[in-house]
Amino acid sequence: MMLEGGGYDVVDLEVDVPPEKYVEAAQAENADVIALSALLTTTMPGMKDTIDAIAEAGMKGSVKVIIGGAPVTQNYADEIGADGYAPDAASAVDLVTSLL
């Protein structure tokens, strides 16, 4: 909602999305950014899996991956190779703007 309010087109893939679906959607939509959010620590490994799938598809660098959510930190973003971290939705808009 915040990204849409910031003027960005958003394709919401909903929840519990496998990494391959992110790759397919990013290719189909010619996405510039994939934004991932974790509510629970149990979902955080999926963020790394998605970043790995983006790299395996040869899209690393052309599609930026940002992460956020309650259990996520800048340290974790660095650890998994995310292009950015935002502590809240408003900051995510600023982050996307800076990455593009």
DSSP strand count: 3
Number of domains: 1
Report the sheet-strand fraction.
5-15%
Order of helices and strands: HHEHEHEH
Rg from alpha-carbon coordinates? 12 Å
**Average residue-wise pLDDT:** 95
Model description:
With 100 residues, the protein is α/β, with parallel strands linked by helices. It has a single domain, classed as Rossmann fold (3-Layer(aba) Sandwich). It has five helices and three strands. The chain has helices spanning 2-5, 19-29, 44-56, 74-80, 89-99; strands at 33-37, 64-68, 84-85. It has a three-stranded parallel sheet with strand order 1-2-3, sandwiched between helices. Helix 2 crosses helix 3 (44-56). The model has no long low-confidence stretch (mean pLDDT 95).
Helix-strand layout with pairing:
Blueprint (H helix, E strand, L loop, with lengths): L1 H4 L13 H11 L3 E5 L6 H13 L7 E5 L5 H7 L3 E2 L3 H11 L1
Parallel strand pairs: 1-2, 2-3
Compact summary:
By secondary structure, the chain is an alpha/beta fold. It contains five helices and three strands; from the N terminus they run ααβαβαβα.
